[in-house]
């Protein structure tokens, strides 16, 4: 049996809703020989700049994208990784992909790095922190911080039966200056909504969310709104601190405004009666302020 000591204690999550893939990846890196990448990777992989909004504020919209892009996005941030997936319509590959994924996971654990896998936390990402070859079980860390275990045979066959496993294998030596330049390019692509997604994305997500708050919100959507505000607030923090760390003062100041606006909106949602139109107007004003600042950031990153 091999099991790593991994937790979320060193991962900054300012709302408790940091996107599960980013949170698990950061935790895996914090507790490995690649700890220097643990905070940067949330921004340099592009996750800090991505937004998706479903018409009904379904939380699952945040987890719908071309999963295999994870590999190149992490490599953008200076890491190398192994990745395997098995999606809908690929049932004939189930056993082959599952066995390959388990091998990737075991090799990663042996290197001292937790793997990140889909559906470990109930239709959310989670970390795989160990394995027992004799019992054929994987030890997991759910997004709520609780540990669990799953049989080898259940990998990729849980609540939403698709397989997606990523493991960091090393560092590619990419210079930090190049990482920064390429991160801006990736951010621009995300803000323009250029990745595949079934939902409204990028800067257009602001209008979709504002329209929902203004015209469609009822208390039935209270938690959905909290989830969206909490997810993107926590991600924006990483955009702000990434640019601050590498001396991009203008971008850092813009994203500080973006983050502060989202955080204020999140706090209002948790402390005020959102059924009151005047409170919803405050949320809308804050989101407009964030949109204005992030649009300016997009223009600067295009230069």
UniProtKB/TrEMBL annotation:
Q: What is the lineage of its organism?
A: Bacteria, Bacillati, Bacillota, Clostridia, Lachnospirales
This chain's source organism reads: Candidatus Limivivens intestinipullorum
Q: What protein name is recorded for this chain?
A: Uncharacterized protein
């Amino acid at each position: 049996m091999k099991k790593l000591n991994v937790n979320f204690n060193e991962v900054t999550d300012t709302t408790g809703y940091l996107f599960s893939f980013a949170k698990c990846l950061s935790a895996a890196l914090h507790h490995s020989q690649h700890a220097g990448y643990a905070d940067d990777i949330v921004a340099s992989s592009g996750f800090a700049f991505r937004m998706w909004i479903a018409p009904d504020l379904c939380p699952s919209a945040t987890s719908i994208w071309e999963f295999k892009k994870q590999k190149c996005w992490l490599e953008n941030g200076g890491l190398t990784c192994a990745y395997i997936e098995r999606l809908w319509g690929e049932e004939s590959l189930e056993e082959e992909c599952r066995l390959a994924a388990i091998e990737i996971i075991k090799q990663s654990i042996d290197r001292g790095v937790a793997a990140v896998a889909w559906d470990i936390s109930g239709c959310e990402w989670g970390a795989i922190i160990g394995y027992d070859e004799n019992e054929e079980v994987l030890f997991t860390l759910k997004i709520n911080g609780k540990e669990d275990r799953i049989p080898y045979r259940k990998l990729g066959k849980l609540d939403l039966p698709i397989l997606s496993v990523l493991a960091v294998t090393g560092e590619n030596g990419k210079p930090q200056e190049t990482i920064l330049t390429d991160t801006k390019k990736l951010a621009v692509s995300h803000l323009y909504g250029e990745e595949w997604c079934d939902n409204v994305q990028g800067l257009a997500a602001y209008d979709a969310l504002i329209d929902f708050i203004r015209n469609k919100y009822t208390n039935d959507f209270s938690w959905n709104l909290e989830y969206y505000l909490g997810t993107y607030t926590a991600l924006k923090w990483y955009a702000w601190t990434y640019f601050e760390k590498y001396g991009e003062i203008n971008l850092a100041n813009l994203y500080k405004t973006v983050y502060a606006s989202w955080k204020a909106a999140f706090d209002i949602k948790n402390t005020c009666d959102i059924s009151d139109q005047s409170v919803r107007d405050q949320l809308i004003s804050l989101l407009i302020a964030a949109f204005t600042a992030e649009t300016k950031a997009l223009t600067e990153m295009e230069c």
